[in-house]
Amino acid sequence: MEDCSFDVASSRDQTRWLSFEVHPERIIVESNQDGFNGEDVAQICRTGGSWKRQQHGFVGEKGIGFKAVFQVASEVRIQSNAFSFYFLYRSDGTVKERLGLVTPLLADDPIPLDERPLTRMTLIPNNTRYENLVAHFDEVHPTLLLFLSKIQEIKITIHMPLRRTTITTFSKEAPSVATPADLTLLIKKVVDEAEVFDIDPEIFRYYIFRNSITGLAEDEARPGRDGCEVVLAFQVDERDCPLKSSQYDVFAYLPVGNLGFNVSFNVCRFSLC
Length: 273
Hints:
By secondary structure, this protein is mainly β. The protein has four helices and 13 strands.
């Protein structure tokens, strides 16, 4: 989603969102991004040759990221405004079936005009156990939104057997103008259709510090780029006192891992040198 544009949503003052609706027989991923153009379709079909290698602020450069969906899906249907196509892939099938990884098939169900802009991807799971798929979504934490500059809301709807459905929404409230230390609120709301009463949302408070670094050694994966932006997020309580942890999540747009750091704070109202 960091690679997408949300100019239409921004011009309409709409929340920029991403949603997942998980069923045993399908996973529906939707977003109100601007939508695909012809070059986007060509990029998603090929492997290698990514346009991101010489671009700043985009994740990935190998040109294979989208293909990761075939670890859990045997069919992927894509609808993005006027574009409608799909992929069929079997890793243990014939040569033709394996070529489904990069061979799009034309479909005839574009997004209706009154629903645009909208991009929808429907994944038909392979033999991956449904419980394992759901477990991946259970691991999503609201801190993911701290390091995504475009998405403001993520909604995950899980349909379990016996008609039980849970809807988890992560949202972000951040200042419109950047300051040296931005206080950002992350809000997690869970609705369980089996519960009679609503569950109060959880609110997480973070101070965000950003710093641009230049003069880095060149990497062959990113020719011509010698800099990056480092973003640090520190959680505080309602009195602005730091909630110190011995383990911190590391992101490169997406989660990398959970590592140990030594971080020193003043008593409340910490400062970063």
